[in-house]
Amino acid sequence: MDRRTLMKTLIAGLGASALPLAPLAWAREPEINSDARDKPFSYAWLKGYAQKLAGNAYVSHEGELPQTLKQLSWDDYQAIRFRKDHALWADSDSAFQAQLFHLGLYFQSPVAIHEVIDGKATELRYNPEFFDYEGKQPLGDLPGNLGYAGFRLHYQTDYSRDLAAFLGASYFRAVGSDMQYGMSARGLAIDTAINGEEEFPRFSAFWLEKPQPGSQVIRVWALLDSPSTTGAYAFVLDPGRNMVMDVDVALYPRTEIQRAGIAPLTSMYQVGENNRRMDYDWRPEIHDSDGLAMLSGSGEWLWRPLENPAHLRFNSFSDNNPQGFGLLQRDRNFDHYHDDGVFYERRPSVWVQPKGEWGKGSIDLVEIPTVDETFDNIVAFWHPEEPLKPEQEYLFSYRLHWGERAPVSPREIATVQATRTGLGGVIGQEREYLSWRFAVDFTGGMLEMLGDNAEVEAVISASRGEVEITSARPLSAIGGYRAMFDLVPGDSEEPINIRMYLRLGDEPLTETWVYQYTPPPQSERKLY
Q1: Which of 27, 170, 187, 323 is most buried, by CB atoms within 10 Å?
Q2: pLDDT in tens, 325-370
Q3: pTM for the whole structure
Q4: Which residues contact 124 (CB under 8 A, 6 or more apart)?
């Protein structure tokens, strides 16, 4: 399944009540069942099992389903709903409950799900009585070793709304205080945006620990499996104004992985203030995230506005021991979206906070053309400089923050609030050459305290072309500053990388705005 089909399915599926799947003969990881049922379960055991599994060839169980589940229509697939009275821990005083996703249609790889109580794991066998089915197509007799597609979690503040969900490949999502789904995270990305086919590792088994009475956190473990690697994952979910997830990862490559993506984030950007390429919708903006924020190992804050490019675009930001990065939805104004159905202004931002030293590598950003808001077309992740090699163990720990605001932000400096672009030049004067205008708004930091006569300067650099008509002036409507300039690209159609920040004397006042502008083809420039 390609990224677009998978993400369209996930978006639709998580917005509904449940989902379906089922296998025939079951050879799937029998060691998990026998070992975990009779022996104490621990993360150490899971890492040992993942390491052992890496010594064997990858075995795919995709498509091992009864035909009745493979051939379900979308409507019949959505008609399989988990019964809330069968939710895990519904009959206890736990602050959490769990519901299971059924297999079927697009979800054709079974997932083994276990409950962990007092350090002992028991597999949750498939039970058709867990589900109500209101579809028209008969499902037939389904085997007891069918398995599930994934699970969703609910919290005591509102058991009717999702807190988090793990569904499809290694994808998972969570909500902050707005209880609004948006972008997704993944366990691992492999070969994203390179020549050849991307590999989608999957979580083939989960272990859910029953929370102790009064506990406000829940622990989940997962086994990752793919042709290139296995992995053991430990999650601790702590809901609040921001959902905080502590993630520990142990990877055991089967083959050398040249392009591994650690802590990958996946989002959607179709239309925004700076990119109106697909602006045929009545809504002025359509996106789950509007920018990539980065805090480098040296302490520099960067903001890269997202785009919906005409062609696949790949940007790499080299770093050493990054302090954090995330795909953020900074624009929280309903009037900028006018969508009273999905409420894009409520979509959670996700910030990745590395623990320990990650060494040299890069934060990579992939932007894929899209014509539809149901396709996630934005990917960001940490790419280690050195490839991951077989017969080695690679450990990564990080914290994910899901919510309205990132847990850390520039305190002494201003941040970008909006980026707008359009035709440059001087109104009323004939344009002798193509120039493109950029207007970037900054707020926060020291900007509000500056006098009108403060000599604020926009410091701009471009990889090629000429910068002209530069200005930086107060904008009282936002309590900040607006920087404007025109970029003259010349005859070349190659992308241009731009950096800008505001300063007063030698003192930076803002984070660094970074952008990549691709000039239109020569054949289209006559339109300007």
Answers
A1: 187
A2: 999 999 999 999 999 999 999 999 999 999 999 999 999 999 999 9
A3: 0.91
A4: 88, 100, 113, 114, 115, 148
Amino acid letter for position 449 = M
Burial of 90 per CB tally in 10 Å (0-12, 13-18, 19+): middle
In whole angstroms, give the CA distance from residue 486 to residue 460. Answer: 11
284: left (phi over 0), alpha (psi -120 to 50) or beta: alpha
Neighbours of 429 (CB within 10 A): 7
Helices (H) and strands (E) in the chain, counts: 5, 33
How do strand 512-517 and strand 301-305 relate by DSSP bridges? Answer: parallel
Beta carbons within 10 angstroms of residue 21's beta carbon: 32
Among candidates 219, 229, 246, which has minimal Cα distance to 98? 219
Torsion of CA 49, 53, 54, 58, to 10 degrees: -150
8 Å CB contact between 61 and 149 = no
Angle separating helix axes 30-38 and 43-54, nearest 10 degrees: 160
Cβ(220)–Cβ(152) below 8 Å? no
77 membership: H or E segment, kind and range: helix 74-78
Decide the pairing of beta strands 480-488 and 436-443: antiparallel
Condensed to tens digits (0 to 9), the pLDDT of residues 76-134 reads 999 999 999 999 999 999 999 999 999 998 888 899 999 999 999 999 999 999 999 99
Distance CA 256, CA 54 (A): 12
Q: Which of 289, 416, 300 is nearest to 365 (CA)?
A: 289
